[in-house]
Amino acid sequence: MKVIETKIPGVLILEPDVFSDQRGFFLEIWHRTRYESVGIKGPFVQDNVSFSQRGILRGLHYQYPQSQGKLVQVLSGRVVDIAVDIRVGSPTFGQWVGEELSDVNHRQIYIPPGFAHGYCVTSETAMFSYKCTDFYSRATEHGVIWNDHELNIDWPIKNPILSSKDSGYPMLKNISQDKLPNFGDFK
Length: 187
Description:
By secondary structure, the protein is mainly beta. It contains 2 helices and 13 strands.
C-alpha cells in the first residue's frame, strides 16, 4: 500500500496494492495492523454505502460533538472527494483537500475526526463506501454550505444536484465556534 500525505496533516490518500490477472483483480481495502501502522486509528464501528447519479453533490457534512473519522472509497464510478479542516485552533482551519476517487485508481482517503466531508459524482453513477469511527447521530449532524466562497473549493461542476438539507447549510464563518470541533480535542 502506498500512502500519500496531503497538505493537511492526518488526511491521507491511500493506494492499495492491486493484484490483477485475466480474471479481474483483488485488493485489500482494510487491514487493521497495516492501516494503524500509517496512523489510521479505529476502531471503525459503522460501514455505509451510498449510490448516486452524475451531478449529485453530498456534503459538506460533519458531526459534533460526536465526530467521525472516515475511510472513504469508490466501489464503482468516479467522484471528487473533499475534506475541509473545521477544527477551531488548527493551523489548517478552513483549508481543504480534494482527490478523485474511482473504481479505476482504487484510491482511498482517510479523513480524521474534526473535518467536514463531501463529494461530487462525475461519472454516470457512483457507489461510494465509507467506514466510520463513530456511529451516525442525527442529533449531532451539521454541515457547511458546499459553495462557501471563502473556502473556494474547486468543485468539478458548478450547478450540482443537492438535497434540501445540503443546500441550506451556512458558510463556515457563520457557524458558532461552540458548534465546531476543537483542534486540541484531536491531538
